[in-house]
Design a protein that fits this description.
Elements (H helix, E strand, L loop, with lengths): L14 H23 L1 H28 L7 H23 L3 H31 L2 E2 L4 E2 L29
Antiparallel strand pairs: 1-2
Protein name: Hemerythrin domain-containing protein
GO molecular function: metal ion binding
InterPro entries: Hemerythrin-like, Hemerythrin-like_sf, Hemerythrin_metal-bd
Length: 169
């Protein structure tokens, strides 16, 4: 049984992001179901999830770069960490026939994804709306001024940016 199903709780009212997120949820479920049948099927399905996630995160990272998120934001950093983990799980299963990490990572990805979507991705969707970003054209109706570049994760749940932190005594 899949660890995660698409639901209104993780929808962001951003059509492109919601479509990509729904695909992620579906591929995660397909990976869990395939792994229940056999390790080889599970790995094949998981590879599709990893490939999708590379594109998914790349798309969000390009949107952030195009709309004023600073390169050091923790949202992009988290994408990199998750992809690194996912690729290591693939390597362990493929090269060492160690399917334990694959078995454990799938339900953990489901938990992580809900939190990530509801915090970091929700902040990104809000930011994209605020700047009037059209993902199809890459045009912003209301570009931010340079001083408004997003650092941290773009939301209130991250640490303040260096500019927002108190000066050292």
């Amino acid at each position: 049984m899949p660890s995660l199903h698409w639901s209104p709780e993780i929808a962001l009212d951003h059509p492109e992001m919601d479509q990509t997120h729904q695909e992620f949820v579906d591929l995660l479920a397909a990976s869990e179901e395939a792994l229940a049948r056999s390790p080889a099927e599970g790995l094949a399905a998981y590879r599709h999830l990893v490939e999708h996630t590379v594109g998914h995160f790349g798309q969000e990272d390009r949107w952030m770069a195009a709309t004023g998120f600073a390169p050091e934001n923790c949202h992009s950093y988290q994408h990199g960490q998750v992809l690194e983990l996912m690729q290591e799980v693939t390597r362990l299963a493929q090269d060492e026939q160690d399917f334990g990490p694959l078995t454990r990572v799938l339900p953990e990805l489901a938990k992580w994804f809900v939190q990530h979507a509801q915090s970091m991705d929700a902040a990104l969707a809000s930011h994209l709306q605020q700047v009037g970003f059209d993902p199809a054209t890459g045009v912003m109706a209301r570009p931010p001024v340079a001083e408004d570049a997003q650092t941290g994760c773009g939301g209130s749940s991250c640490s303040p940016s260096p500019a927002e932190q108190p000066a050292a005594a």
